[in-house]
Write a structure and sequence with these properties.
mainly beta; 24-stranded mixed beta sheet; twelve-stranded parallel beta sheet; elongated
Length: 414
Amino acid sequence: MKKFRVSGIVIILALATLISGCSNNWSDEVKTITGLINENKDSETNNSIANQESTSTDKSDKNNNPDLTDATTITAKDNSDYTISSAGNYILSGKASNFTVKVEADKEDEVQITLNGATITNDNFPVIYVKTADKCFVTTQGSNNLSVNNLFTTDGDINTDAVIFSKADLTLNGTGNLTITSAAGNGITCKDDMTITEGSYNITSAEDAIEANDSISVNQGTFVITTNKDGFHCENDSEDGSVYIKDGSFTINAKDDGIQATTTLVVDGGKFEITAAEGMEATNIKINGGTININASDDGINAARKSSKCDVVIEINGGEITIVAGPGDTDCIDANGTIIVNGGTINLTGNSTFDADQGSTYNGGTIIINGTQVDSIPASMMGGHGGPGGFGGNKRDKPQGGFNGDRGEPPVGR
């Protein structure tokens, strides 16, 4: 999105990112973001004309029942395309095979597509293909089913790879249900910023279920995902690729990662049931709330160096986190940098529960390791893995101690 607009979700994401240590000029940027937040408050209380655009953008993202009085109706037909060339509201319905809605609007145009009883199955091309626009909204009403059965074909030099494929900013919302099946690719791909504010999504995909380049922001929604790769994946380069989740219900069964970001992953709330190789992965992970249950064959939560923009940190400030890690060389919570626990309830089961290459700090919260409540974070074992209960880790506000754990015995409880 080329226009400069600030929505509530974007502000929260930006601020969370800065606090998470992902900005080299964080002081100046915090002042800028703080100013924008104050301006946004002014627009809500004083109806400031200067900030109406940012307010209306936020409302548009959350508008699950758009005014369709003057909407154009699109009825899906076999072996055909429908091209949207201008801004406006459109309703897509009907049952068809090999039908694609193409959006080729002006780069300043916003397009809203409301799915209302659409059942479309394609062989090798997206059902919704946003080629040019400022932003596209896909709103669900009723029950909808979109699928692509085979490998995707390219459009010139554009590698289309998803049932819904957008090169512009993409917002998903609505009060209905959307089932997506992608036999050989992604479920939903956005090459810019993706926002999800509501709706129910059942996605089965061979590749990533939901993928964006620059950012994914989720405010609400219900997600049931089965994928051979990642549930949520955000990656562009080492500077972009953040995920922010405020609320929602997530049932993810993934062969690779449940949720992966390149830079920051911030969780403020939501309910998560994740079965995956790794539950959550990013360079910098901050969990402020939510109910998170992870069953991992590898690491449960993993902070690894994917970007030079951020410090490699896992910070837990709240929430209820339960992780079961598989046998072998695995960790429940693993940081190639540091781990900070300030609050929340953390219940871990595994051979190695905490592994922090550069130390960890325990300031508060409840930690339960293999059924025993403890008052410290266990030190990592030799080679980077702690036993089910090596103790001699970090007490509150203390730097991590050296290797003096004992694989096989739990840490001393409180």
